Structures are given as structure tokens and as C-alpha cells.
Amino acid sequence: MSKADIRSATDITLTTTAGNPIADNQNSLSAGPRGPLLLQDYQLIEKLAHQNRERIPERVVHAKGWGAYGTLTVTGDISAYTKAKVLQPGAKTDLILRFSTVAGELGAADAERDVRGFAVKFYTPEGNWDLVGNNTPVFFIRDPLKFPDFIRTQKRHPRTNLRSPAAQWDFWSLSPESLHQITILFSDRGLPTDVRHMNGYGSHTYSLVNEAGERVWVKFHFKTRQGHRHWTNAEAAQVVGRTRESTQEDLFASIDKGDFPRWTLQVQIMTEAQAAAWSEATGLNPFDLTKVWPHRDFPLIDVGVLELNRNPGNYFAEIEQVAMSPSNIVPGIGFSPDRVLQARIFSYADAHRYRLGTHYEALPVNAPKCPVHHYHKDGSMRFFQNDTGNADAYYEPNSLDGPKQDARFAEPPLPLHGAADRYDHRSGNDDFIQPGNLFRLFDAAQKQRLFDNIAAAMQGVPESIVRRQLALFTKCDPAYGEGVRRALKLDPVGDDRIKGTSATDEAKESDGIPA
Ligand code: HEM
């Protein structure tokens, strides 16, 4: 609180929510000094009733979060690819960024190994653009049909009410598309010291459209300018013993003292022709969320700088009630055939209507900073007027000059082909090359920490599940499966057998003699 906010007690009279002055806020209204209370003590009733309504459902995922306001300043020039005003050279756009962990509840400790959310709402002159990403460029699944099951394994077991490593590894070992994200999660990057020292990624493939109506595919990256910092499991355990709010403390304090965190916004661009050629050459799908685009083929292009420079004034109003929706998109930025993105276009706005209410977009933190003209009508907590320029224009089309569609904002058509079917998303999609490549990038110490982190997370998991998962690591790289097996102190038998090693070799290994 600044000095200017501290006013003397006599300046402001306490009131009810209806503005009626309150004479006594210390003593309830009773019949006699020791008697029961009177129903007419409206002030007491209002206080208790309000308290009972202070909680709304926490987010079904990403419940624990930390956020701040800031700006995006565009220093590069990608106007050849997009007409979006927010991405034009020199543009400066206000934003709010909410970071989060995925699995923990609202009161979870911050220093936990988990993916971090990196969700940005840009208040652009063409409406809000929400880029709801993570601190990882890929994800655990590539088909949204699997999302509720995946999340179920991350949350509490229905009987024990504890998180279940057995369920997690059962699901992962049956879902090899998760290998890339698992390798990141259990590497150093899976436990950042705070959110200033990590990258953010849009993760999905999106599209950009330029003034000429030409479309390219794009991936968004936010590279931390603070450098990367991580905790080991042991360090994090100490931190959690000291404070459960380490990330909140770090982010709030650094902004409060004027040490504003910054990220460089970069994009990778793929033309439609390049997408077809890359797909042909590698067999990979440019819209597969479990894959990255190699930087050497699709170099990073600098776009601008994202800075966080203002803490929220009220955490509940501005961070708990911020509603991030991948469906919020602006002219010049569009979706792609990524099927997980397609599902998210539905899921978030639906979640907000349930969690916050029908008119959640009208809450101050969510309200666009540009004129809003729509015909949506009533519902709980309607506290705005429809700005249609004419009270009689409450439907559309009308002959009263109410707001109407404008074909200038149409996207170029996207050719689609193929018969409708439930195609096996596993066939023809390699799950092992990219996680194997990432594994091979790690130095010996990083690899050992990866093995140890995975082994720690597998404690108590049935051996059959562990063996199934080891076989998957081995398919990424024999040294990967072998390293985890050794960290688990398991004998080299079963499905995780390394291809090409003989029974004798395995026997030697189990005796501690390297094959
Ligand atoms: C939050 C659904 C995949 C990042 C949420 C929420 C839902 C959801 C329902 C809670 C929204 C709220 O109540 O405010 C889904 C579904 C997915 C999916 C159905 C896949 C089928 C992803 C992916 C990413 C992601 C791939 C990142 C690339 C986030 C983030 C939040 C979130 C950052 C928190 C947003 C905030 O800070 O308010 N997700 N999600 N999710 N999700 Fe997802």
C-alpha cells in the first residue's frame, strides 16, 4: 500500500453493500447484553452470507497460479506474414500473464515438478488475443479425446485421495506419444526455481494471415531473458519445507521492486508448401502437438519483447477470475488443424461459463480494451448495456444500423480433404525420434538427473508398468532405458531388454559388468 492510500479513519464511513452507513461493526445486535441475536441484524447476516459465497470452483486444471500485467513491444518486422495489429512493427500492447502448475490444487506448493502454464491475454485494438501456452514446446497427448483421462491420472485417486504414480505411469506407458513431454518434465526444466527463469511456448501450430490473404503456419516462443534456473528434487523439498509460495514470492517481489522480467517473443514460420515437403521428407505431421519443428529448418525470428511490470491490485478479481481462451483470436492470427487446439477452442470458454458465469468476458480483467458490439443478452450478473448504437437494435439482421458482419475480416479458405473417420493417431507418427534426440543433447550429469528424477517418480509403481515404460525409453535411446533401469536398481529382464544384447550380455550387466 502506498502512503497516498492510507487515509485517516474518520475520512471514510463503513457501509453495507447497498451503501447504508454502519454505526457498529464490532458488536452484534442482541436482546440484552447476554441474550440471543436478532434476525434484523442485517449487517451480521450480510457479512456471513457474503463470506459463504467467497469461493468459486477452482480451475479443473492449472488451479494454482501467479500473474502480473505487462506489455508486448514489437521490435521486429513480421508484417510480411501477418496483418495482426498486435504484431506490427512498433506496436505496444497491454497484457496480463498468468503462470500456473497443472496438477496441484489452489493451495498446492509452488516448488513442485510439473509443467508450468504460460497464458497471455493481449488487450489488442482488435479484441483480446489469448495465447494459452506452457513452458514446454510439446504436450503429453496428440488427441484431445485422451485429455480427461490423462488429467484424471494427474489428480487424486478416488479411493485413497492421494496422487497415484501407478496411474500416471500406467497411462504414460500405454501412451508413447507422451515420451517427449515426459523427457522434458523429468529433466532439469521440469522444476524451474520460479517463473521468471523459464521459457513460454504457444506449443500448438497456429496460422498467420497477411494483408494479401496469404496463410503461413507459425509457432510462438517466449525466451526468458533472465536465463534458466532449476531446482533438483532435493533442493525443491527444502524450499517447500520453508515456504509453499516460493513462486508467488519471487514474482511479486521482483515486480514490486522494479526488477521487471522479460521474454523475447520469437516465431517459427512454415509455409503451406514447406509443411507438405517437411511432412513428406520426415513423415512428421506439422500439426502434431508432441513434436517440435527443428530450428535449423525453421529458424527463430525475433518479434519483440514481453515485459511484466505491474502486480495485480486484487488477486481474486484479476488472477482467479482471468479467463484465458484459445478461442480468442484476432484478424491476422488463426487456428490450424492441430486437433488438440481444435478441442481447446471449445473447452476453455465452456469452462469459464461454468466457473465464472455467462458474462465472464465483461469482468474488468477480461473485458477487451476496444469497443465491443454484440447481441448476447441476459443471464446472471448482466451489468453492461449492449453497445449497438440504438436500443431498438437488439437482434440481427436489423434495418436500424446495428452492428453487422464485415467480410473484410474473413479468413482465406483452407482446403480440407479426406473421409470422416476415427483415424488411428498413432500410425505413421513416430514417438521416439524427437525424445531420443533431446535425450542425446543432455550431458552426462543432466542424463543422470533425468534417470534419478524418473526413478523417484516411479517409486511404488507395479513392476509390469515400469517394465513397459522402460521399453519405451529404450526405443528412444538404449542408454535412456538403461539409465532409468539402473537408477531403479532393476535387473535387465523383461520387455525393457535392450535390442542387440544377448542373454550373456544381460547376465554380465546384472553382475555389474558393462556389456
Ligand atoms: C487451463 C482444458 C491442453 C494450457 C485449462 C482449463 C481447461 C483446460 C478446462 C481450465 C480453464 C479455466 O477454468 O480457466 C484443456 C484441454 C486440453 C488442454 C481440454 C486438451 C485437449 C492444454 C495445452 C496447453 C494448456 C496443450 C498448453 C499448450 C493451459 C493453461 C491453463 C489451462 C496455461 C491455465 C490458464 C490460466 O492461467 O487461466 N485447460 N487443456 N492446456 N490450460 Fe489447458
From TrEMBL:
<feature type="active site">
    <location>
        <position position="62"/>
    </location>
</feature>
<dbReference type="GO" id="GO:0046872">
    <property type="term" value="F:metal ion binding"/>
</dbReference>
<keyword id="KW-0479">Metal-binding</keyword>
<dbReference type="InterPro" id="IPR011614">
    <property type="entry name" value="Catalase_core"/>
</dbReference>
<feature type="region of interest" description="Disordered">
    <location>
        <begin position="494"/>
        <end position="515"/>
    </location>
</feature>
<keyword id="KW-0575">Peroxidase</keyword>
<dbReference type="GO" id="GO:0042744">
    <property type="term" value="P:hydrogen peroxide catabolic process"/>
</dbReference>
<keyword id="KW-0408">Iron</keyword>
<dbReference type="GO" id="GO:0005737">
    <property type="term" value="C:cytoplasm"/>
</dbReference>
<dbReference type="InterPro" id="IPR040333">
    <property type="entry name" value="Catalase_3"/>
</dbReference>
<dbReference type="InterPro" id="IPR002226">
    <property type="entry name" value="Catalase_haem_BS"/>
</dbReference>
<comment type="similarity">
    <text>Belongs to the catalase family.</text>
</comment>
<dbReference type="GO" id="GO:0042542">
    <property type="term" value="P:response to hydrogen peroxide"/>
</dbReference>
<keyword id="KW-0560">Oxidoreductase</keyword>
<dbReference type="Pfam" id="PF00199">
    <property type="entry name" value="Catalase"/>
</dbReference>
<dbReference type="InterPro" id="IPR018028">
    <property type="entry name" value="Catalase"/>
</dbReference>
<dbReference type="GO" id="GO:0004096">
    <property type="term" value="F:catalase activity"/>
</dbReference>
<dbReference type="InterPro" id="IPR020835">
    <property type="entry name" value="Catalase_sf"/>
</dbReference>
<protein>
    <recommendedName>
        <fullName>catalase</fullName>
        <ecNumber>1.11.1.6</ecNumber>
    </recommendedName>
</protein>
<keyword id="KW-0376">Hydrogen peroxide</keyword>
<dbReference type="InterPro" id="IPR010582">
    <property type="entry name" value="Catalase_immune_responsive"/>
</dbReference>
<feature type="binding site" description="axial binding residue">
    <location>
        <position position="348"/>
    </location>
    <ligand>
        <name>heme</name>
    </ligand>
</feature>
<dbReference type="GO" id="GO:0020037">
    <property type="term" value="F:heme binding"/>
</dbReference>
<feature type="active site">
    <location>
        <position position="134"/>
    </location>
</feature>
<dbReference type="InterPro" id="IPR024711">
    <property type="entry name" value="Catalase_clade1/3"/>
</dbReference>
<dbReference type="Pfam" id="PF06628">
    <property type="entry name" value="Catalase-rel"/>
</dbReference>
<feature type="domain" description="Catalase core">
    <location>
        <begin position="15"/>
        <end position="404"/>
    </location>
</feature>
<keyword id="KW-0349">Heme</keyword>
